[in-house]
Here is the input.
Amino acid sequence: MRQLFVARDGKLRGRWEKAFPGALAVRQVGDLAPLVVAEAQIVWMDNTGRDSADFLAGVREAVGCGYRVVVMTPTPSEADAFRALSTGAVGYCHLESAPEQLREIALVVEHGGLWMLPELVQRLMALSLRAVPTPAAGPPQLNDLTPRELMVAERVAHGASNREIAEDLDITERTVKAHMSIIFEKLGVRDRVQLALAMNNIPTYATVN
Amino acid sequence: MRQLFVARDGKLRGRWEKAFPGALAVRQVGDLAPLVVAEAQIVWMDNTGRDSADFLAGVREAVGCGYRVVVMTPTPSEADAFRALSTGAVGYCHLESAPEQLREIALVVEHGGLWMLPELVQRLMALSLRAVPTPAAGPPQLNDLTPRELMVAERVAHGASNREIAEDLDITERTVKAHMSIIFEKLGVRDRVQLALAMNNIPTYATVN
DNA sequence: CCCCTTACTGTCCTTAAGTACAATGCCGTT
DNA sequence: AACGGCATTGTACTTAAGGACAGTAAGGGG
Here is the structure.
């Protein structure tokens, strides 16, 4: 039981069974508790007629449980795809994908890859480039940071507190602060919030310099 | 001969041969004409010490020839990854990836998938979300926030301090704090750093919940 | 009119954050 | 050997943040 399809109806069940003979289950939309028992590796979720927020919550839940989630949609949309993937899904395909296609996707996803409609890949990359204000150089001037400082900065970029960083790196909170002060100066930010944003290429009031 | 490694030196050749016994070639950096003959399916390109523009030109050329290009780098960087992928590469991994890892990547790429460092996937999607004019649903559950709270949250998302927000909205710093407390609770974050990141669709340690 | 939500503010108080001034040990270069 | 960069930690101090507890005022709906 490696494939689990979650959909409102089973119209396409035949197709799915053809793609993964004897290795799938089909569930109606509902709570995901039984999934834990199902030992499914990949959860295919059909968003047909689902409320966006509800659906994404379901995706998040499944992802949180450690499953690889592939979203299937009858009407592919760019924004929809990005929302799904940013929620943790690792695949975004057409609901009516052919069995062979489904197997390809399963293969990719099982091995840590990301699968989405080819057109979307291009779009995604183009958009990302636009979103990354740094045309030539890397993110900020992270090159100026020492390895250790970078480790601290990265953790701040993920919302960690000084204490957490200290425990994580097995050093004193005082030392973390020392690194922080230097990082602030080097990157030209004034506090951890701006650092976190800068690390994620997000402009701040101060970054405007 | 399905794997072709293009690098400046062959230090890691042993590793690559272990990953793809008898099915690879290693070439020095140079013109790609011989590639056409090589019948390689996947071209792995090491960008160590290469000029960014030059390197990307090489990637573009290989992509244009119909090869799946995987970029290998000793120093993974977000902007670098996006540039590589938007140029047409379908993989972005660490130069020193283990043989098993390389095989996984090859498998993913061969089947039309996209492979990149897990951290980067998250970042990529978050960035895209910001670039896309998020049509209907906002990022988090911003719908739960009152208009005023949203104003405060948006300013925090740009790195503003409580005082700045207070002056900006012409209210007391105390009031800002009051809003903040409610925002934290509503969005399930613990401090302004995580709020700032959440507002920008960037996952944090706490967001995982 | 009463209730609830939203917005706003006050006073304490605790703690996280950040700075100032040092100091020690390691390592690589000159 | 001397010097500088890096990582580490200490004490002490200042300030921003955030929570606890409480209170006022406006506005919409039952």
Q: What stands out?
A: The radius of gyration of chain B is 23 Å. DSSP finds ten helices and six strands in chain B. Residues 146-149, 171-172, 174-175, 178-179, 191 of chain B lie near DNA strand C (CB under 10 Å from a C1').
